Amino acid sequence: MNELLMEAAARATRYLDGLRERHVPPSSDDLARLALLDEAFPEKPTDAQTVLRVLDEVGSPATMASAGGRFFGFVVGGTLPACLAANWLAAAWDQEAGQATSSPIASALEEVCLRWLLDALCLPAGSGGGFVTGCTMANFSGLAAARHALLKRAGWDVEAQGLFDAPAITVIVSEAVHVSVLKALGLLGLGRGRVRTVPADEEGRMQPEALPRMDSQTIVCIQAGNVNTGAFAPALEICSLARQAGAWVHVDGAFGLWAAAAPRRARLVAGVSDADSWATDAHKWLNVPYDSGLVFVRDAQHLRDSMAVNAPYLIKGTRREPDEFVPELSRRARAVEIWAALCSLGRQGLADLIERSCVHAARFAEGLRAAGYEVLNEVELNQVLVSFGEDNATRRVVEAVQRDGTCWCGCTLWRGRPAMRISVSSWATTDADRERSLGAILGIANEVTRAGVIRHRS
Ligand SMILES: *Cc1c(COP(=O)(O)O)cnc(C)c1O
User: Fold this and answer.
1) I need a surface site. Which of 43, 133, 293, 390 has the fewest CB within 10 A?
2) How far is the centre of ligand 1, averaged over its atoms, from the C-alpha of 200 (Å)?
3) Which stretch of 188-192, 292-296, 312-316, 343-347 has the lowest confidence by average pLDDT?
4) Which residues line ligand 1 at a C-beta cut-off of 6 Å?
5) How many angstroms does the Cα of residue 254 sit away from the middle of ligand 1?
6) H or E element in which residue 181 lies
7) Which among 132, 174, 178 is the best mutation to test ligand 1's pocket, defined by most ligand atoms within 8 Å of the CB?
8) Per residue in 323-369, pLDDT tens?
């Protein structure tokens, strides 16, 4: 075991060192070598050293270098050093984190993290919370608590009776709603297509004046951080209207919620803490390993009532039982890495991580604008949407940037126009990474758009 783990550490270190110079996406040769794994299920055992060697030799080159500083796709960050190390130790512990009895440490860390997270994210102290796989499940869990609370109010026990013949619930979303919210609504029997959709402004912010009449059987889903623009719904106004009507407000804040942790960005989340439930990711801007999402509910009892189960073999102690606040029973101890992140960063380090990402994004926008390209969004957070002229030119630039591999940025469609989407969310991104990436993007864009002009003329 000793030797094996030391070798794993050596291989991992070599991999991480290599990220500094590596192309961000894998090469086609690296991808072709994945065919080596496509064998029949082996009859005989393979020694662990060989298992590790194959994984490293075939697997490591076929990764996306998202742990490095030049990956700007999908609003996901790299893993902080303390989190990676904590993850290794926790894997050695091999804890079943669902029950306090089966993992006292996991349960204790969840309680500490819950308190720290509510503090860092400026959410009401004493709110309940659960440690889930990602923001999709966090949205699901927050909305399950909402469904429970609203139907209970109407005298209906949804967990026992289901939704057939239940009183109706109205769900309001904005036209810029994230697909994971719709997916969660579908899983909850509230319907992906049964929602009332409210128009959003040019940044994707829900328009409060367009809200339909709400009542105590209404759930309003708002966004803190649009997945394209990074924009926030006007939460102060929406929460105030919802409160007057007795409606429930759920916030999808997968990455945007973290703006609350950076004093210079905190104005963006004004009013968000007035909501009833919140969903966010730790594996995005907190830079912990996958999979790690978080749900918070103002009244913990609603979340517990929607999730808790009883079985004769489940032991109920006097402490908070982790599995009573999430869909899963057995699961890994996600709080270990969250604790490691929060402990290693502290309030100042967390603020710095968020702020630095936003400053990188602003600099990307400035450099692109200065070169004559159109930035399509107000860059207030960590997201930059850029158009390189005609739709096809933009698509070609994104493809060429991805092929070049100096950095990696995705493509999106914003208000009908294709755009390159730059998301800065990793602790690992340095000023040098940013300038090198910006230089590569500008060089490629210049080449592609000039070639386009020449083709037009001829
Ligand atoms: C990423 C994201 C989600 C989904 O989160 P997962 O962790 O991928 O499940 C939901 N909403 C927004 C705004 C996101 O950016």
Assistant:
1) 43
2) 19
3) 312-316
4) 75, 134-136, 178, 180, 225, 227, 252, 254-255, 281, 293
5) 5
6) helix 179-187
7) 178
8) 999 999 999 999 999 999 999 999 999 999 999 999 999 999 999 99
Q: Own/partner pairs for 110-117, CB < 8 Å, 24+ apart?
A: 110/320, 110/322, 110/335, 111/319, 111/320, 112/335, 112/339, 113/335, 113/338, 113/339, 113/342, 116/339, 116/342, 117/294, 117/296, 117/338, 117/342
User: How many angstroms separate the alpha carbon of residue 231 from the centre of ligand 1?
Assistant: 14
Mean pLDDT of the chain: 96
| 217-271 residue pLDDT tens | 999 999 999 999 999 999 999 999 999 999 999 999 999 999 999 999 999 999 9
Residue closest via CA to ligand 1's atom 7 equals 134
Spatial contact of 382 and 229, defined as CB atoms under 8 Å apart: no
At residue 453, the pLDDT reads: 66
State yes or no: pLDDT of 318 exceeds 80. Answer: no
Q: State the pLDDT confidence band at 53, using cuts at 50, 70 and 90.
A: very high
State in Å: Cα 183 to ligand 1 middle.
Answer: 11
Residue 208, C-beta contacts closer than 8 angstroms, at least 6 positions apart: 234, 237, 238, 241
Distance 255 CA to ligand 1 centre (A): 8
Short-list 169, 130, 117, CA closest to 303: 130
Q: Whose CA is nearest to atom 2 of ligand 1?
A: 254
Q: Give the span between the Cα atoms of 38 and 425, in whole angstroms.
A: 34
